[in-house]
């Protein structure tokens, strides 16, 4: 079932003709975009597919030779993805609070064979121990790694040193894979999860990210820039062409300008895109409150304005509707829904536009924020910053609701195509209303649809 939505655009719209109520912004066609932009976009798409589907990015890397290490503990590991413990010396043994034989699951005072070791600071080491060192498969978890978003390191140990191919289990449940050199993550790294696929791309040197990294967000966009954010960070929309480029801090947008991909260069096997700024219109992080929509009401999203427009619906009594501005294949992200954020248990009354942010189950809906459009923003004369709230209902929809992590609006609902859609075609989603609580127009539409089957 789709999101429980109470939208009924005919309740408040005053439509007197068939002209567009929200003028179509100039839309970019492939003939109007610089040819180099299209070529660069195609290169990016091919590169991302290569990273996701091929092993060469990781396994084709030629790892430097490892010098022998005769230290008990590696230096300069704070703030780096590494396993600093080589040899469990007497000094480190004093900090041990538990040793457990993993074959018998019994506590032990002899560190031999397959064992886990817990330290007083919360560090835990696992491996096959030979002469107080790990050999073969083993791992580490520690408070220092937790600070870096890392839950667990797993890899191969040679004379106590983590070296060669390894996996990094992140706190967000994704897994990064790459090479360890002398205990430290070093070389190209790819992150993925079973559900969403490719999540992260970057290059490490001595345990730290260097240069540009790619971080995939919910909804298919990418944050591209340095690990710490800063200037010249880009939010690349799912079309791999449109972007917001500017300053990020702690993973969140501070300010950015609309931009278009222009070219790219390869550094350490990582694509570094170059963008052309399109205007000095500034975009910021505008998270709505329960009482108001914070963003400028008519500052359109640069990606959405190329995809859709608002005009009179083809549905009898449907008021305003949402239409495709171009041809789109299935699975295309088309439009965003930003409104006020009504907390669980609160209400602004029945507007006809409310939609659960977490609609998947009855339990999730009971705890969900409701996105809604207050009356003063329901007309396109007053609000066009996002347009998905204008989409009408169908029991045979050509679109569906998905989630998007948007740089300006946060986590919001969005509209994605279910099938091929032609330019000028009206877009529909299934509102997924509870039939016992649905309004009369919804029930009548259901009866009409059933009769036509």
What features would you describe in this structure?
Helices cover 12% and strands 38% of the residues. It has a 17-stranded antiparallel sheet that branches. A 3-stranded antiparallel sheet has the order 20-26-25. The longest helix is centred in the N-terminal third of the chain and has 19 residues, at 35-53. Strand 15 and strand 16 form a beta hairpin. By secondary structure, the chain is mainly beta. It has 7 helices and 27 strands. Residues 1-28 have low confidence and may be disordered.
Helical proportion, percent range = 10-25%
Inertia-based shape: elongated
Proportion in β-strands: 35-45%
Number of DSSP helical runs: 7
Task: Average the pLDDT over all residues and give the rounded result.
Answer: 88
Distance between the termini: 20 Å
Number of strands: 27
Low-confidence parts, pLDDT < 50 over ≥5 residues? 1-28
How is the biggest beta sheet arranged?
17 strands, antiparallel
Radius of gyration: 27 Å
Q: What class, by secondary structure content?
A: mainly beta
């Amino acid at each position: 079932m789709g999101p429980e939505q109470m939208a009924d655009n005919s309740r408040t719209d005053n439509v007197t003709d068939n002209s567009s109520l929200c003028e179509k912004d100039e839309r970019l066609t492939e003939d109007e975009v610089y040819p180099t932009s299209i070529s660069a976009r195609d290169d990016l798409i091919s590169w991302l597919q290569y990273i996701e589907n091929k092993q060469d990015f990781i396994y084709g890397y030629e790892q430097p030779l490892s010098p022998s290490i005769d230290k008990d503990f590696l230096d300069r590991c704070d703030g780096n993805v590494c396993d600093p413990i080589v040899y469990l010396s007497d000094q480190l043994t004093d900090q041990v609070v538990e040793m457990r034989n993993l074959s018998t699951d019994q506590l032990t005072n002899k560190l031999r064979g397959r064992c886990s070791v817990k330290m007083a600071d919360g560090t835990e080491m696992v491996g096959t121990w030979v002469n107080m060192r790990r050999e073969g498969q083993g791992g580490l978890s520690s408070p220092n790694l937790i600070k870096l978003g890392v839950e667990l390191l797993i890899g191969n140990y040679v004379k106590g040193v983590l070296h060669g191919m390894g996996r990094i289990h992140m706190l967000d449940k994704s897994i990064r894979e790459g090479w360890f050199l002398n205990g430290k993550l070093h070389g190209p790294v790819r992150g993925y999860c079973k559900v969403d696929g490719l999540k992260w791309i970057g290059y490490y040197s001595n345990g730290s990210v260097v240069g540009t990294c790619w971080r995939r967000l919910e909804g298919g966009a990418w944050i591209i820039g340095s690990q710490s954010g800063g200037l010249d960070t880009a939010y690349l929309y799912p079309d791999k062409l449109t972007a917001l480029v500017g300053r990020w801090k702690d993973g969140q947008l501070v300010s950015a300008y609309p931009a278009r991909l222009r070219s790219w260069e390869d550094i350490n096997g990582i694509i570094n895109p170059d963008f052309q700024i399109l205007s000095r219109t500034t975009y910021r992080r505008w998270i709505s409150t329960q009482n108001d929509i914070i963003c400028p009401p008519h500052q359109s999203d640069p990606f959405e304005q190329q995809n859709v427009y608002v005009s009179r619906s083809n549905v009898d009594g449907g008021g305003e509707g949402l239409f495709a501005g171009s041809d789109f294949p299935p699975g295309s992200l088309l439009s965003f829904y930003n409104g006020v954020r009504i907390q669980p248990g609160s209400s602004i009354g029945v507007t006809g536009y409310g939609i659960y942010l977490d609609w998947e189950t009855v339990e999730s809906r009971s705890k969900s924020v409701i996105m809604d459009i207050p009356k003063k923003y329901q007309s396109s004369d007053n609000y066009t910053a996002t347009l998905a709230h204008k989409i009408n209902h169908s029991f045979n929809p050509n679109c569906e609701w998905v989630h998007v992590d948007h740089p300006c609006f946060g986590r919001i609902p969005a509209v994605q195509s279910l099938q091929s859609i032609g330019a000028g075609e009206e877009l529909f989603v299934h509102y997924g209303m509870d039939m016992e609580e649905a309004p009369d127009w919804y029930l009548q539409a259901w009866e009409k649809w059933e009769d036509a089957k």
